[in-house]
Amino acid sequence: MTTKSVAKGGVTLNTSSKKSSIVTERNIKIAFWLVTSLFFLWGFSHGLLDVMNKNFQNHLGITKAVSGLLQAAYFGGYFVIAIPASMVATKFGYKGGIIMGLALYAIGALLIVPASNAQSFTLFLLAFFIIACGLGSLETNANPYITKLGRDEDAAFRINMAQSFNGVGQFLGPIVGGTLFLSLSHGNIEQNMSNVQMVYVGIAILVAAVLFLFVITRMPEGAAVTGEAPATTGAAEEGSGSYGELFKVRHFRLGVLAQLLYVAAQVGAGAFFINYSVEHWAGLSDSQAAYFFSVALIAFLVGRVVTTPFMKKVKGTTILGLYSVINAVLMIGLQFVHNLPAVILLWLSFFFMSISFPTIFAASVVNIPNSTVKKASSLLIMSIVGGAFMPFFMGHVSDLFGTGAGYLLLLPCYLYVAWYGFKGSDPVK
């Protein structure tokens, strides 16, 4: 059998003559772009989530601390589903895990209908928990699939490119939410709930369409994806593939903590962006602040688009360390500014957060045994639970001392991620 690999756009394609009837270059390209579309879907959901905090404060009469329970339910779902999603992926492949995730996403979105009809925050928490279970399954499978869709040395570049579509989704979420939710007066709860219902039914329909495409599409895995024999993938094939074996890998172990703290910082920064903006800019409305939040997510997207090409010349982890130091400084700066400068500092913080999640993910799974990759992914997705606790604590601090003080809780998170980028991410032989 003759086999050769062709590199295109950071993706190594297998052109094995024997496998050509099963896996073609076209199969791999379709799989790559289908999986990339998932990054957009969960990005849009994340973008809407941060708007929903302020929306529920306005229309359901809850405090900042209570609204933080929305993130607790949402990112708690990631924690709960990650290991089951890994088990499904181990038995049925990445495709099986993705199909499960899309199904849960659609079901959760449809549960928004009874929640909005009842105007019940508790039912909303349940719906968002199920949505998050779906998204957790998607991320557990899509992130490692992208990193393994070619050479290990290009993994950070590849996942950051895919995550750029996540940024597009996050940008659109607040625009939709600001227009349909926050622009309404506080007393217009019936129209607000109707708009919430309409948006999430639309999401359910779109997700169902993507689910159908995955069902009918061949998703190559393993050597058929990389175009390399298992012995040359850059990771050892020996070993039990156990969680114990995985946690012996220092840079992975430290990477899980880095991901937990980074997600805590990202989610906290987004959850109270609108609150911080209206508190520090006299006369700014909630809907205007939501549009400013969209600008922040544009900065997030631009950060990925601008920075990703540099990863061909500078180590992604070095950039991660530098950007995280800058964000630590910005959190301090937020305590001393008002009006437009205050919002600009928040925009900058999103720019410098942009490459953190995919870069930490890629750095954590490099040079680990292939038998542990799916388990590694599940643990990295479980670490997203950091986003569950930070908004709650930020909400309490914000209720007592103002939202600016709440942002100081993000400072130690950025400092640890900076250390991981500079030192902790280096694989120890």
At the third CATH level, what is the topology name? Growth Hormone, Chain: A
The tally of structural domains comes to 1
**Runs with pLDDT <50, length 5+?**
1-21, 227-238
Compute the number of strand runs.
2
Across the major sheet, the strand order is: 1-2
Looking at the chains present, what oligomeric state does this protein adopt? single chain
Distance between the termini: 35 Å
Order of helices and strands: EEHHHHHHHHHHHHHHHHHHH
Provide mean pLDDT, rounded.
82
Overall geometry = globular
CATH architecture classification: Up-down Bundle
Q: Output the number of helix runs.
A: 19
Query: Mind telling me the CATH superfamily name?
Result: MFS general substrate transporter like domains
Roughly how much helix do the residues carry, as a percent range? over 70%
How many strands, which pairing sense, and closed or not: the largest β-sheet?
2 strands, antiparallel
The proportion of strand residues reads: under 5%
What gyration radius follows from the Cα positions, in whole Å?
21 Å
